[in-house]
């Protein structure tokens, strides 16, 4: 199933230039999900996104996702319809979850509908829709904030923090002692392939975070598939069980670079 989704993601990305401009969602839905029915999620998916982004190149997009009664979540997909690579992030769970909260810093290239799609372990699809206005900065083609050569020196470095905010338990509809928040700060230029070197005036080749594998206590928890929509030096936050005691993250980028980070979690 994971391989077929990856193929669909690639197809959606290749189709994006044709679809961009007004009514991308019907085409994206067909490319990604075919004839499968996407049910309105109602209050099962609560999107957290700004009405208008203050910084188009770094906009925090998040959601709290809850599985319908009687089933569990298998994966969650974030789609920015009008971005050059619409499928912006995919969270695939190693073991199905009853609920999941995330936020991630993304590039929003222009005003766009936003869709969050949850797939359950029994194959149901739930969708919620939002809309994000922008400040007209053209995020995917905006010049990098750091010198490309300097960015390579720290590429792949990661900082892991785990906290237990009370609000997270409420979003997960879980007892107060059950939920924690994992914050991951990643050093990576996330070159989109659309940015121009300000000295040579040549396009900088695309290079971005392709995959993040997050393990808890030595076992798989969630695999995150990235895209050019990830901001420069992206920040990712996900909900985790509060009982977790170790976190291991493996980053793989599109050039094949692999880096790792580990953190032992103290009692809260």
Molecular structure report:
The chain is 15% helix and 41% strand. It is α+β, with helices and mostly antiparallel strands. The chain starts with a helix and ends with a strand. The longest helix has 18 residues. A hairpin with a 2-residue loop joins strand 11 and strand 12. The protein has one domain: Immunoglobulin-like (Sandwich). The N terminus is likely disordered. It is globular, with a radius of gyration of 18 Å. The chain is built from four helices and 15 strands.
Short description:
With 268 residues, the chain is α+β, with helices and mostly antiparallel strands. It has a single domain (2-264), classed as Immunoglobulins (Immunoglobulin-like). The protein is 15% helix and 41% strand.
Q: Label the overall shape.
A: globular
Please tally the helical runs, counting DSSP H or I stretches of 4 or more residues.
4
Q: What is the percent of helical residues? A: 10-25%
Radius of gyration (CA) equals: 18 Å
Number of domains: 1
In the CATH hierarchy, what is the class? Mainly Beta
Strand content: 35-45%
Low-confidence stretches: 1-22
The named CATH superfamily: Immunoglobulins
CATH architecture: Sandwich
Overall SS class: alpha+beta
Please tell me the overall pLDDT. Answer: 87
CATH topology: Immunoglobulin-like
Strands ordered across the widest β-sheet: 1-8-7-4-5-12-11-14-15
Can you summarize the main beta sheet?
9 strands, mixed
């Amino acid at each position: 199933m994971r391989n077929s989704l990856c193929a669909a993601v690639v197809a959606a990305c290749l189709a994006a230039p044709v679809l961009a401009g007004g009514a991308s969602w019907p085409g994206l839905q067909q490319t990604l999900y075919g004839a499968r029915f996407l049910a309105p999620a109602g209050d099962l998916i609560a999107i957290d996104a700004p009405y208008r982004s203050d910084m188009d190149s770094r906009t925090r997009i998040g959601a709290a996702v809850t599985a319908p009664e009687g089933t569990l979540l298998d994966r969650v997909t974030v789609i920015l319809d009008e971005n050059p690579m619409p499928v912006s992030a995919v969270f695939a769970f190693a073991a199905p979850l009853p609920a999941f909260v995330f936020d991630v810093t993304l590039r929003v290239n222009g005003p766009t509908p936003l869709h969050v799609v949850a797939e359950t372990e029994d194959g149901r699809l739930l969708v919620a829709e939002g809309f994000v206005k922008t400040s007209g900065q053209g995020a995917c083609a905006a010049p990098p904030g750091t010198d490309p050569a300097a960015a390579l020196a720290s590429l792949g470095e990661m900082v892991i923090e785990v906290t237990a905010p009370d609000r997270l338990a409420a979003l997960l509809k879980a007892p107060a002692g059950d939920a924690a928040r994992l914050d991951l700060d990643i050093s990576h230029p996330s070159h989109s392939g659309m940015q121009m070197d300000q000295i040579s005036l040549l396009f900088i080749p695309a290079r971005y975070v392709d995959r993040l594998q997050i393990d808890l206590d030595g076992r798989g928890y969630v695999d995150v598939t990235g895209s050019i929509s990830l901001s420069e030096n992206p920040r990712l936050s996900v909900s985790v069980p509060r009982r977790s005691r170790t976190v291991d993250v493996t980053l793989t980028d599109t050039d094949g670079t692999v880096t790792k980070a580990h953190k032992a979690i103290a009692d809260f």
